[in-house]
Design brief:
This protein is an alpha+beta fold. It is built from 21 helices and 26 strands. The strands form six sheets. Strands 1, 2, 20, 23, 24, 25 and 26 form a seven-stranded antiparallel β-sheet that branches. It is globular, with a radius of gyration of 26 Å. A hairpin with a 2-residue loop joins strand 11 and strand 12.
């Protein structure tokens, strides 16, 4: 707490005092979840809010899932083949650990298994994505800036977002809060609007530490043994004994696992360094942006709000801008894509890139700014931000739509946020058609191919073609990567960050040739057209088996349904009847502007997240601003507000984004007065 800014600390203390006043003085029963668990919460602490901020940042991080996987894949298939699986892959990995056995790949699989289990148990399955765009006065019908944002996160009930409106002297701001934090994370006040997109920032690195043969609490650094910091802690478990454990910390960060069981002359352990822990004043950035009156104020706030996010923003003067928020480590002698030895002192972080060198943009000539988790730095940028950017599909489609018209109004942004055209399909369907020339097709395969040739490339729930192509997306990476990687590595490669394998597929399909297209288990040498044709045939076979031999009944919505799970409803079918929302047949796919992510290789239900909060801010007429979230604002399943926004969200509709006090009072359903004493 001592490292927090005064503004951040006072806000968190006031928030904690309010929560604790409710717990100590309110005679209403606690939410039913507490009653089911038989659990009574203790006092809320400032550290609880800090933990929530770090937890949200952790769930949005991609490096945790990727770097040890890289090492394990290199061990499995060799450096030459592995190069194709990672865009801008760093060469020379085998020489990094020159002596004896390299234990990193072994710890990699164990770590990934644990991380996968934790993500399933805690209810987050993807690193998050987002769309945001803003047009300046010249591209707006009203002559004022127009703004849109929709963060893509796991869809849950209660939602990760809590809609809030904070109105006090000097601040009148509304938007989305994370429960447990007293700041609007994305929203608007009377002067500015801003939103967040995941930057896919690589702000975590793994260091292999060499341990003393007789004392595992000592590790080697530049020829000297240093003592680890040891933090003793415990986890209380209901109905069982408390679990006591130690957190060991080196100069590079906490030890994430122990490798002593492997046969090397020295024991090893892997430490992880994470940039987010170096920026305790991030809360000041959110305190400032909630009170901002101009783009300049937002840029000042961005210097503090360090996280793995981008901000897009606009003000009522008509200025628009973009800022990358993450702390960029200055890495010495390495790129951060693979684990490095920590004992040499050769591979270290030398501080962070200054704020004024962070990628940012204001009032570009084209009159608009877009980010859809795509690459942000210009060519020649001297610092490494990430290699884990999203596929370019959503960015390309949004940019295409913004260039298709001279000017836009709020209704145009509504249509764009609901867009479900798959750019990847537009690129790949002609290649599928070519791959099937001169191949024998069954009647149902012929019919399916003819439909693809007439398709508009949109992924609507009533479309048959959407089923064919989306199932094809399931089989294409399987037929390309699985035989060489093996089952376990394939699953981790595909589900850790879906963008990496599909960016690789885009690259090797563009080239038209890759050793990955060849199946090593057959005597023939397969090429790209063989894999495309096989993936198409596999998709038809799947649909025929699961939806029948009448192609007229292959509507996408029969496979692609959305159920928004409550944590209890995910574990209990009985409780799910009360807590869960759905299932609903839904439009969209994994790479559409309106995304409904399914998990490749694990079925087609929309389990990987979607638009968790949509809002459009019109500076010309704030009364036309609007927002929506899937579900409702209440966490009480017996409240009418538990799910009263669900149908609007499914239909791409909105409700008012209200800031004006008079409009708030018109819209109120209940009024709570807090009276001193």
């Amino acid at each position: 707490q001592g490292k927090l800014s005064p503004e951040g600390l006072s806000s968190l203390k006031a928030f904690a005092a309010g929560v604790n006043y409710y717990l100590e003085n309110d005679d209403h029963p606690l939410p039913i979840e507490f009653q089911i668990l038989g659990y009574e919460p203790g006092p809320w602490q400032v550290t609880d809010s800090i933990a929530i901020m770090l937890y949200v940042a952790w769930t949005s991080n991609y490096a945790f899932k990727t770097e040890l996987l890289h090492a394990a894949i290199i061990e499995k298939v060799g450096e030459d083949l592995a190069k194709d699986l990672f865009i801008d892959y760093p060469s020379g990995f085998p020489a990094i650990i020159p002596e004896g056995e390299n234990p990193v790949p072994k710890i990699g699989l164990g770590y990934l298994k644990t991380l996968h289990y934790a993500s399933e148990f805690l209810g987050f399955n993807n690193g998050g994505a987002s769309n945001s765009w803003v047009v300046g006065p010249k591209k707006s019908k009203s002559g004022q800036a127009l703004f849109a944002n929709d963060p893509h996160l796991n869809l849950t009930v209660p939602s990760i977002w809590y809609e809030g409106h904070l109105s006090v002297p000097g601040m009148n701001v509304s938007g989305a809060l994370v429960a447990g934090m007293p700041f609007i994370i994305g929203g608007a006040n009377e002067h500015v609007a801003w939103g967040v997109t995941n930057s896919h920032h690589d702000d975590a690195d793994f260091f292999l530490e060499k341990l003393h043969p007789d004392n595992k609490d000592l590790y080697l650094f530049k020829g000297k043994w240093e003592k680890m910091k040891i933090v003793k802690t415990s986890i209380r478990v209901k109905g069982a004994e408390t679990v006591d454990y130690e957190i060991k910390v080196t100069r590079h960060g906490p030890i994430i696992d122990d490798l002593n069981k492997h046969k090397t002359s020295y024991g090893h352990a892997v430490a992880m360094r994470w940039a987010q822990l170096d920026f305790p004043k991030a809360f000041r950035g959110y305190w400032l942006v909630n009170r901002a009156k101009s783009v300049k104020d937002i840029e000042e706030a961005a210097g503090f709000a360090k996280s793995g996010q981008n901000w897009l923003y606009a003000d009522k003067q008509g200025d628009i801008g973009f800022y990358f928020l993450g702390g960029i480590p200055k890495r010495r002698n390495f790129t951060g894509e693979l684990p490095v030895p920590g004992w040499e002192g050769k591979y270290e972080w030398d501080g962070y890139v200054p704020n004024d060198e962070q990628p940012h943009l204001i009032n570009p000539k084209q009159g608009f700014i877009v980010n859809a988790n795509n690459k942000i730095e210009p060519e020649g940028y001297p610092h490494i931000i990430t290699k884990y950017y999203a596929t370019p599909d959503r960015f390309m489609r949004i940019q295409e739509l913004l260039r298709a018209k001279e000017q836009f109004g709020p209704e145009d942004f509504e249509t764009m946020l609901d867009d479900v055209l798959i750019v990847m399909a537009r690129d790949w369907v002609p290649l599928i058609v070519t791959s099937l020339q001169d191949r024998q097709l069954s009647n149902i395969e012929t019919s399916a191919l003819e439909r693809l040739q007439r398709w508009d490339f949109c992924s609507r729930k009533n479309q048959i073609e959407a089923s064919i192509f989306n199932v094809f997306l399931n089989y294409l990476p399987e037929n390309t990567f699985k035989n060489r990687l093996g089952q376990d590595l394939y699953v981790y490669y595909l589900t850790g960050d879906k963008n990496i394998p599909f960016n690789v597929l885009r690259e090797i399909i563009k080239k038209g040739d890759s050793p990955w297209f060849d199946n090593p288990d057959t005597p023939e040498i397969e090429v790209m057209n063989d894999v495309l044709a096989k993936s198409f045939k596999d998709s038809v076979r799947y649909l025929e088996k699961n939806l029948g031999d009448d192609i007229q009944k292959w509507q996408w919505g029969k496979l692609h349904t959305l159920t928004i799970y409550h944590p209890f409803g995910k574990k209990s079918k009985f409780l799910g009847k009360f807590f869960n929302l759905g299932p609903f047949p839904v439009d969209g796919s994994i790479f559409t502007v309106n995304p409904t992510y399914f998990k490749i290789s694990k079925g087609f239900q929309a389990k990987g997240g979607g638009a968790s909060f949509r809002y459009i801010i019109d500076f010309a007429d704030p009364q036309k601003s609007k927002r929506i979230l899937p579900g409702g604002i209440s966490g009480n399943f017996m409240s009418p507000h538990y799910d009263d926004q669900m149908q609007l969200w499914l239909e791409g509709k909105y409700r008012p984004f209200v800031l004006d006090r008079k409009e708030v009072m018109k819209d109120k359903m209940c009024l709570l007065k807090l009276v001193p004493n």
